[in-house]
Write a structure and sequence with these properties.
The chain has one domain: 3-Layer(aba) Sandwich (Rossmann fold), CATH 3.40.50. Helix content is about 40%, strand content about 20%. It is of the alpha/beta class. Strands 2-1-3-4-5 form a 5-stranded parallel β-sheet, with helices on both faces. It binds manganese (II) ion (MN). The site of manganese (II) ion has 5 residues, from loops.
Amino acid sequence: MTGENVIGAVAKRILVVEDNDLNRKLFCDVLKASGFLVEPCADGELALAAARAFGPDLVIMDIQLPNISGMDLIAQMKRDAGLSAVPVLAVTAYAGKGDEEKIRDAGAEAYLSKPVSIGPFMRAARGLLGV
Ligand code: MN
């Protein structure tokens, strides 16, 4: 993989942290189809190390992960000097208004509730990347 997309621009890098196999594949497939360079991460406990290794321009973060909360991961990212500037798009099955506030308080720049539709997902991702 060259890191360049079809128009020769350097592709933006997106880390997808999602334990559900179908959701992870869907998110990765639609992002790749738009020319992004995508790294999947199924295990939340490996997410920070994956982010440090991959150097993403955007992180898609599932909130409901086994053994660790996506909210805690976002908070840890925002305290990490190397990762704090990376925008986070949280995706969650939570629907409550209070939950959205908690997710934003943790540091997520944007939030989508599941089930996630592709149109709003891509608009949110592009908006955070500025592309
Ligand atoms: Mn999950």
